[in-house]
Amino acid sequence: MPRLTAIKYADAGPLLKLVYRYARKRFGAVPEPLTLTAHHPGLLRTSAMHEMMVEKSAKTLPLSVRELAVYRTATQLGCSWCVDFGTMLQLHDGLDIERLKKIDDYATSPAFSHAERLAIAYADAMTATPVTVTDEQVAELEAEFGRKGVIELTYLISLENSRGRMNSALEITDQGFTSGAACEVPLR
């Protein structure tokens, strides 16, 4: 149970109700982090705009590379909400979610491509405390994805670090996106 009480639909103002309806239609349920961030309307608007802009802008890397790096970051942080939501997003994007069970063995598993392995290792290095990224690692990523790709990957991993740490601090845990109504939302 989260450390703060969520704003329920019945207690929401007209604009927030609209946001909740949109989220429910898109994801099958209103994401709990949204219902807590709703206590600060300015940050909710900022966060929602930021997430939409990132989603539209982050198209340089292959989808599987992006999603696996973000998923790995969530698992390294132990953010069960992020793992749950990220799995649902990968399912909706048509990615193979069965291989997520092998992510701890990514370095040797044939389930992951060379590019995916590089991104997952980078997520590990960026999420470690302290950060363990090396010059050689960034050079290898640049050779594989180009500078724009390195920036995109770095941004997405750092964003997931932010999300996961906020969720952990507020004790937001998995919401059942991979087993509940979210799976009933038509796949894209």
From TrEMBL:
Keyword Oxidoreductase annotated: yes
Segments forming domain Carboxymuconolactone decarboxylase-like: 54-124
InterPro entries in UniProt: AhpD-like, CMD-like
DNA repair in keyword set: no
Pfam families found in the cross-reference section: CMD
Keywords from the named record: Oxidoreductase, Peroxidase
GO molecular function: peroxiredoxin activity
The organism's place on the tree of life at top rank: Bacteria
PANTHER family: 4-CARBOXYMUCONOLACTONE DECARBOXYLASE FAMILY PROTEIN (AFU_ORTHOLOGUE AFUA_6G11590) (PTHR34846), CYTOPLASMIC PROTEIN (PTHR34846:SF10)
Protein name: Alkylhydroperoxidase family enzyme, contains CxxC motif
Source organism of the structure: Amycolatopsis xylanica
